[in-house]
């Protein structure tokens, strides 16, 4: 971290984020652990949280794990006035030997750093923050639920706290992390979720902030989400432009599996063009698919060895999905993300004008695989979960917390 010059021309030392300075203040009374399956996603507050602050003169404070509680912020804080809020989503799962493991956490730290830079928030030492997060997980280890499909969700958050309504970057910041035990994100995940394709309200746009994990990317979707729910859909398939190009499915990355004329499979996902989040599960999915495609006989994925696999990152329109569905070649679609891992997309509702172009109606695009994960989605779920738990770690993605 660079040091700002002083009036005498000498650089002033700015303290870096230093994990060796971490202190732990344990709660005097611990909360009871609720039974898995009795709470909704993200609703439980555990005993402790991690917190540190940044001051432009002195740098980062000593990180602290302390009892979970409210933050004290000035009402004019930059995060309230100008949405300088960035965050990450991570999960801890109990490994085969009972040790908590994280999935590619270094990538989460890099993405948080990238998001912070986009919002002109202060940088931090990624390795130091990860070390502090591991300590928080070990402090809250008893909260990690054991049942399959459950985990301890981790939410590192960085907010601008300069107390001023003047328009500009925040020079002060608070970095904290909370954890919460969670089960499946979607109650209907075993059968699949439904999506309403929308381009009337745009989630992201070229040159915007869709490629970063910012709070302001999510809240504009709350109202359209209510509209979709009123029409009987679980989430929104976000589109952009007259060609109705697909960006994301709710807060997930989107994949379509198409049957080829030669009997092979083509898996298509939109490219990282700045309008979609570079999902870590998305990247892991592509790594696994490409490794399998390079040598189907290696059985990296539980798919037929005689069925060739092709992977495409390219612009993909909802109209293409409709054409494939009509031809009977749209085998399955699925979404990927930290919260869901892999979830089946059961149907997609697309709003189109009728013959005279006046009245709009919804056409349903359905997958040949029907309800639940198809062969490719199920193969991805099995392999990714095995990697996350450290049972069959493909690339050393599972990182132990010790």
From TrEMBL:
GO terms for cellular component: mitochondrion. GO terms for biological process: L-leucine biosynthetic process; L-valine biosynthetic process. It catalyses: L-leucine + 2-oxoglutarate = 4-methyl-2-oxopentanoate + L-glutamate; L-isoleucine + 2-oxoglutarate = (S)-3-methyl-2-oxopentanoate + L-glutamate; L-valine + 2-oxoglutarate = 3-methyl-2-oxobutanoate + L-glutamate. InterPro entries: Aminotrans_IV, Aminotrans_IV_CS, Aminotransferase-like, B_amino_transII, BCAT-like_C, BCAT-like_N, BCAT_family. Its cofactor is pyridoxal 5'-phosphate. It is an enzyme of class 2 (transferase). Keywords: Amino-acid biosynthesis, Aminotransferase, Branched-chain amino acid biosynthesis, Pyridoxal phosphate, Transferase. GO terms for molecular function: branched-chain-amino-acid transaminase activity. Pfam families: Aminotran_4. The modification N6-(pyridoxal phosphate)lysine is found at residue 213. Its EC number is 2.6.1.42. The keyword Transferase applies. PANTHER family: BRANCHED-CHAIN-AMINO-ACID AMINOTRANSFERASE, SUBGROUP IIII AMINOTRANSFERASE. Belongs to the class-IV pyridoxal-phosphate-dependent aminotransferase family. This is Branched-chain-amino-acid aminotransferase.
């Amino acid at each position: 971290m660079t040091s700002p010059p002083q009036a005498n021309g000498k650089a002033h030392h700015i303290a870096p984020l230093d994990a060796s300075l971490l202190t732990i203040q344990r709660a005097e009374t611990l909360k009871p652990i609720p039974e898995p399956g009795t709470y909704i996603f993200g609703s439980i507050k555990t005993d402790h949280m991690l917190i540190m602050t940044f001051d432009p003169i002195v740098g980062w404070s000593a990180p602290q794990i302390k009892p979970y509680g409210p933050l004290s912020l000035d009402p004019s804080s930059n995060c309230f006035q100008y949405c300088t809020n960035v965050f990450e989503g991570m999960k801890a799962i109990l490994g085969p030997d009972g040790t908590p493991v994280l999935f590619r956490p270094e990538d989460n730290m890099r993405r948080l750093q990238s998001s912070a830079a986009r919002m002109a928030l202060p940088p931090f030492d990624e390795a130091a923050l990860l070390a502090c997060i591991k300590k928080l997980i070990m402090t809250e280890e008893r909260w990690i639920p054991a049942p399959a499909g459950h985990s301890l969700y981790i939410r590192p958050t960085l907010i601008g706290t300069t107390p001023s309504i003047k328009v500009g970057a925040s020079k002060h910041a608070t970095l904290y992390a909370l954890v919460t035990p969670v089960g499946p994100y979607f109650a209907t995940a075993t059968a699949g979720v439904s999506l309403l394709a929308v381009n009337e309200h745009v989630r992201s746009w070229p040159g915007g902030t869709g490629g970063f994990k910012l709070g302001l990317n999510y809240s504009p979707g709350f109202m359209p989400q209510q509209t979709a729910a009123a029409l009987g859909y679980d989430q929104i398939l976000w589109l952009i432009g007259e060609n109705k190009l697909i960006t994301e499915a709710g807060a997930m990355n989107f994949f379509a599996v198409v049957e080829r004329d030669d009997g092979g499979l083509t898996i298509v996902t939109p490219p990282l063009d700045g309008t979609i989040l570079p999902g870590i599960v998305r990247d892991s999915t592509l790594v696994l698919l490409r490794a399998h495609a390079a040598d189907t006989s290696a059985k990296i994925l539980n798919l037929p060895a005689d069925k060739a696999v092709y992977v495409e990152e390219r612009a993909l329109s909802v109209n293409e999905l409709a054409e494939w569905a009509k031809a009977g070649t749209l085998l399955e679609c699925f979404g990927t993300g930290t919260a869901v891992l892999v979830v089946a997309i059961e149907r997609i509702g697309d709003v189109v004008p009728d013959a005279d172009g006046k009245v709009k109606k919804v056409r349903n695009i359905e997958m040949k695989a029907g309800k639940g994960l198809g062969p490719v989605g199920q193969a991805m779920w099995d392999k990714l979960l095995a990697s996350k738990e450290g049972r069959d770690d493909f690339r050393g993605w599972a990182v132990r917390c010790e």
